[in-house]
Each structure stands twice: as structure tokens, then as C-alpha cells.
Design goal:
The protein is an alpha+beta fold. Helix content is about 30%, strand content about 30%.
Length: about 300
């Protein structure tokens, strides 16, 4: 793909969502933003399959982990789909095969994220020799239900980072905190400064008014919550949903209520304008994140799994 393919890609994604109901709506601006990702190698790691001029499938391969990261797993994650009218012709299998060749070329592990509600994608993953290696829960919370405030533990102060976000003040401290908080999490990789500013706080979907940092007396970030509202999703469904994309606490402060306080802040800030909130959690997360979210009122919506080559 190249930047001029944004409209075709958005058209294909709309057709896929119409049938698969993945809860993912993307418009041309989203696709344009995605194709401008500084970490994405368009010639090597993206493909748009055409039938004449009609887009019928795509694949985007995202690399995680760099060669200079000691001990970090380097992976290639496939984001792909086939137009519903063109399934059953081997296109999906060909895309998985291409992804496996690319992973072998880079000498990295291949990953494929599949929703359990999509039996066709599950069958494709299994038929191409992939097996589930990690499970995820997508949770939702009705914001009509009251939000219970949760105090920040002594020694930390909660700082809103919005509504007017100061990137010079917050980008690097938040990025450093995120990389530190997730260093011991499965599948995590260091996020570089350019990728952070582009895809995390520079995206049009970022909602700083529902995001915050917990800082110690020296001003260092010990915890954070980063939230988004997907503009295309709101336009398509008519429902404003706050997606809590990242909640992190540095190891020294875990188990003391930092994440609960940050989450309560984000939900309270969203309650006036949003109908619901959602997030995704690693069901095997050893920090107890699932319990934090359940106590905050989130309930299971659907599940997904990460698939990888056997062995």
C-alpha cells in the first residue's frame, strides 16, 4: 500500500465490518494516519489485494521489538482481512503464508490476533498451522452507572493532561513510564519517541481530557491512563464510547490503588459526554489488572486470542 490507498482500504474495512461486526470502524482519515506510521515499512509490510480496481483483501505487518533490545521478543503481528464476497478462494491462506515468509526473513515470531466471535478467522488460523498462545478479554462499562471515586495513595498526585495537551511537557515522561510499566508484560516492546507522538498522543482520536498521570514529588510519572474516542466509530454507531487504551503503574507502586484512582478519574471525566467505556485486558496479566477493571464496573463483552506458529 501507499498513502493514496487510504480510501480503498477504508472501503474494504467497511465491507468487512458490515459482516464480521468486529466493533471496528475506520474512515479515510484513520487509514491515512495509519499509513503515515513512522514504524511501518509500506513496501515490505503492507499489501492491498485487488480484483481489477476493487479492493478485496489487505495485510499490514507490524514489527514489535528492535534488534538492540536485550532480552525483548521481536515479533511481527498481522492485521489482515478478506472482503466477505471473496472468501473461500484461498486469499486468507495466501496472506498468512506471506506473513510467515516475512517473519522468517526477519527472524522474528509471527502473531495473529483473532476474535473468538469470528469462526472463519479462527478456522483460518488453525488450518494454516497457528495455535492460540494468549487470551484477551474485551470489557465494557455502561457510563450511566455511577463512578465511585478512588483516592490516590499518599506520595502521589494525580495530574490531568488535558483538555489542552502539552506534548512538550508530557510526551516523554508518559512514554518512559509506559515502557517501564510494561517491560515485564507478555508481548510488550519499547515504544520509540516518534511512534509515541504519532500513534499514541498525536492521533486525532486521543482524548487528553480523559487521560491523566500520577506523579511523585519530583514530578516523575509513576502511573498513567491514556484514553481515546474513535471518531469513525462514533459517526457510524451514533454512540460515544471512551476506549481506555493504556493503564500502567510502575512496579514499585503496584497494589496500592494507583490504577483504580486513574481509571476512576477517566470514567468520571467521560460520564457527562459518553455512553460507555471499553478496554482490552490480557487475561493472564500477573498484575491483577482484570480485577481492577471488574471492580470499576467493567463486564465481559467478547474474547480474542493471539495465535502463533506451533512450537
Amino acid at each position: 500500500m501507499n498513502p493514496d490507498d487510504a480510501a480503498s482500504w477504508a472501503e474494504l474495512l467497511a465491507a468487512v465490518e458490515e459482516v464480521d461486526r468486529r466493533g471496528e470502524n475506520h474512515d479515510v482519515d484513520d487509514c491515512t494516519e495509519d499509513l503515515a506510521d513512522p514504524d511501518l515499512d509500506l513496501p515490505a509490510d503492507t499489501v492491498l489485494v485487488l480484483d481489477g480496481d476493487v479492493p478485496v483483501a489487505y495485510q499490514v505487518l507490524r514489527r514489535r521489538g528492535r534488534g538492540d533490545e536485550a532480552g525483548a521478543e521481536r515479533t511481527l503481528t498481522s492485521d489482515a482481512a478478506v472482503h466477505p464476497a471473496h472468501r473461500g478462494r484461498g486469499i486468507g491462506s495466501a496472506l498468512v503464508a506471506a506473513a510467515r515468509r516475512r517473519a522468517d526473513e526477519l527472524d522474528v515470531g509471527l502473531r495473529l490476533h483473532v476474535a473468538e466471535s469470528n469462526p472463519g478467522a479462527v478456522a483460518l488460523a488453525r488450518d494454516t498451522g497457528l495455535v492460540p498462545v494468549r487470551w484477551w478479554s474485551e470489557l465494557v462499562r455502561d457510563l450511566a452507572s455511577p463512578v465511585t471515586a478512588s483516592p490516590m495513595p499518599d506520595g502521589l498526585t494525580l495530574y490531568p493532561v488535558g483538555p489542552s495537551y502539552d506534548a512538550a511537557r508530557w510526551d516523554e515522561p508518559l512514554r518512559a513510564a509506559h515502557n517501564a510499566a510494561f517491560a515485564d508484560h507478555w508481548g510488550s516492546a519499547t515504544i520509540g519517541a516518534q511512534a509515541w507522538s504519532h500513534g499514541r498522543t498525536g492521533t486525532r482520536n486521543f482524548r487528553p481530557e480523559c487521560s491523566a498521570a500520577a506523579c511523585d514529588p519530583s514530578g516523575d510519572v509513576m502511573g498513567y491512563v491514556i484514553s481515546y474516542e474513535f471518531v469513525a466509530d462514533t459517526a457510524r454507531t451514533g454512540v460515544r464510547e471512551l476506549y481506555v487504551a493504556m493503564v500502567g503503574t510502575l512496579a514499585a507502586w503496584r497494589g496500592r490503588g494507583v490504577a483504580s484512582a486513574l481509571l476512576a478519574y477517566a470514567l468520571a471525566a467521560a460520564a457527562a459526554g459518553y455512553a460507555r467505556s471499553s478496554l482490552t485486558v490480557d487475561t493472564q496479566n500477573p498484575t491483577g489488572a482484570l480485577g481492577v477493571y471488574e471492580r470499576a464496573g467493567y463486564v465481559l463483552h467478547r474474547r480474542a486470542a493471539t495465535y502463533a506458529p506451533r512450537g
